[in-house]
């Protein structure tokens, strides 16, 4: 990328509707550390990250960025940036160390302190109940492949709402169930590290069922801003050959439609049901489940990072597919610049995606719950972190959101991923997504140039009234 690709002058021209929410997002295991403090029980990510060979250089979230103790400083950083909202997740095993039954009050107290700190700074908390860290005790009882886990999730949702419902308005059930189900049970690159298509299909359905049961439980407790966060990757066929077109259909089915369509319509897409059944991994739907899954929502969280081009072809050795029955499909290397994750950069695809979701889920307001990019950031001799690529990515994707809004999509908010550099799951600490740089040796926080650019967008928005 050349410096001419960077367009910070865009910032003042970005116009968002009045009341648009601007925030940043994180997740518990990626930032908290303190894994054995205040009675927290182990989660599947503790187990997985400590499994030899599972993560980059054996990195774990044991320490992460010490947010458990440093949260007051982190909330001050959010206030300095002018964020109006902060999206975070609750670690299930801090609240229910065995996943069910005994409640650990010290875990709830931590989130209450965090929420009070946010509210004190005028920052609206957006709480996610599940960002991939299933209590290990529930995994030992079958995990998401077991139907009972969905009911336990609804119980957990009630416990958290009982403690925080008086001060947290915005609730999301799941973050990216596609990753929990398919990366966790099909490719095995995430916890619990299984490679079992039957378990992957079962986990998919039980995650969605858990979402629906939790939504019903929270609604009956009076919650009025309920959503779920899905991760979308537009899939484009590499050629117009029928087999490539069908490969794109199959991956789009499992990546995008298998999660959105039942939530929006109460039906799984028929082609996906057929694909999974043909692969010997049927969705274990029981009577009444789909009505639960389609429990009415107030907003849909959209996570977007990149688009993918797919074709039928031979997969590289050692790269198992995340998609059921798709061993014959490859995702091509992106053309053009890539982030350090190896992901391409396609803001235009983001606009098209938002318009497509708006048409597939009409009437459901959209909130961008994650969008961001990883780069090899360093603190420079001048003490700053110059990250022109992230600034460019951020501004171009914000512009893409404004274009979707102009095109008719009802987008209400944008959360940058991530507030802080943090533990990027199996990729460890090698991937930096933060607006704020973290020196992992000292835990020192430094606002990157992109953070200043984001603050400038927010300031301009506030001034526009
Ligand atoms: O870090 C993750 C996050 O936990 C979920 N969405 C994608 C991000 C970047 O990979």
TrEMBL record:
Keywords: Carbohydrate metabolism, Cellulose degradation, Glycosidase, Hydrolase, Polysaccharide degradation. The keyword Hydrolase applies. It is an enzyme of class 3 (hydrolase). Substrate binds at residues 30, 131, 175, 305, 417, 424-425. It comes from the Bacteria. It catalyses: Hydrolysis of terminal, non-reducing beta-D-glucosyl residues with release of beta-D-glucose. One of its GO terms (cellular component) is cytosol. SUPFAM superfamilies: (Trans)glycosidases. The keyword Ion transport does not apply. Its EC number is 3.2.1.21. Pfam families: Glyco_hydro_1. InterPro entries: GH (IPR017853), GH_1_N_CS (IPR033132), Glyco_hydro_1 (IPR001360), Glyco_hydro_1_beta-glucosidase (IPR017736). This is Beta-glucosidase. It comes from Blastococcus saxobsidens. The lineage of its organism: Bacteria, Bacillati, Actinomycetota, Actinomycetes, Geodermatophilales.
């Amino acid at each position: 990328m050349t410096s001419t690709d960077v367009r910070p002058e865009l910032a003042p021209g970005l116009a968002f509707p009045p009341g648009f929410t601007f925030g940043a997002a994180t997740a518990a295991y990626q930032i908290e550390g303190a894994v054995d403090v205040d009675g927290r029980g182990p989660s599947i990510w503790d187990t997985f990250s400590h499994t030899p060979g599972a993560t980059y250089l054996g990195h774990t979230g044991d320490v992460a960025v010490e947010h458990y103790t440093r949260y007051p400083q982190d909330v001050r950083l959010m206030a300095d940036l002018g964020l109006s909202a902060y999206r975070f997740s609750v670690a299930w095993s801090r609240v229910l160390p065995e996943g069910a039954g005994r409640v650990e009050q010290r875990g709830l107290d931590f989130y209450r302190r965090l929420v009070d700190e946010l509210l004190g700074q005028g920052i609206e908390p957006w709480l996610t109940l599940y960002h991939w860290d299933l209590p290990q005790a529930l995994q030992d009882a079958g995990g998401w492949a077991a139907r009972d886990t969905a009911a336990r999730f609804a119980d957990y949702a009630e416990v958290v709402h009982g403690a925080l419902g008086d001060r947290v308005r915005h609730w999301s059930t799941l973050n990216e169930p596609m990753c929990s189900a398919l990366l966790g049970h099909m490719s095995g690159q995430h916890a619990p590290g299984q490679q079992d298509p039957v378990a992957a299909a079962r986990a998919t359905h039980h995650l969605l069922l858990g979402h629906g049961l939790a939504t019903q439980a929270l609604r009956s407790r009076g919650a009025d801003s309920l959503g779920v966060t899905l991760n979308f990757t537009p899939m484009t066929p590499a050629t117009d050959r029928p087999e490539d077109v069908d490969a794109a259909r199959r991956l789009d089915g499992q990546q995008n439609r298998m999660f959105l369509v039942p939530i929006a319509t109460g039906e799984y897409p028929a082609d996906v049901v057929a694909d999974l059944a043909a692969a010997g991994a049927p969705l274990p739907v029981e009577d009444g489940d789909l009505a639960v899954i389609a429990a009415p929502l107030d907003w849909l969280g959209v996570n977007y990072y990149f688009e993918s081009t797919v074709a039928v072809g031979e997969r590289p050795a050692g790269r198992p597919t995340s998609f059921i029955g798709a061993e014959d499909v490859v995702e091509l290397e992106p053309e053009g610049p890539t982030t350090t994750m190896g992901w391409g950069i396609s803001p235009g695809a983001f606009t098209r995606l938002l318009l497509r979701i708006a048409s597939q889920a009409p009437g459901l307001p959209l909130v961008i719950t994650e969008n961001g990019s990883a780069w090899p950031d360093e603190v420079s001799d001048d003490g700053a972190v110059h990250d022109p690529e992230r600034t460019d990515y951020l501004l171009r994707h914000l512009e893409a959101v404004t274009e979707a809004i102009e095109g008719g999509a009802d987008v209400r908010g944008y959360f940058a991923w991530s507030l802080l550099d943090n533990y990027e799951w199996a990729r460890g600490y090698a991937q930096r997504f933060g607006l704020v740089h973290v020196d992992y040796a000292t835990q020192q926080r430094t606002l990157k140039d992109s953070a200043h650019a984001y603050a400038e967008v927010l300031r301009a928005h506030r001034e526009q009234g």
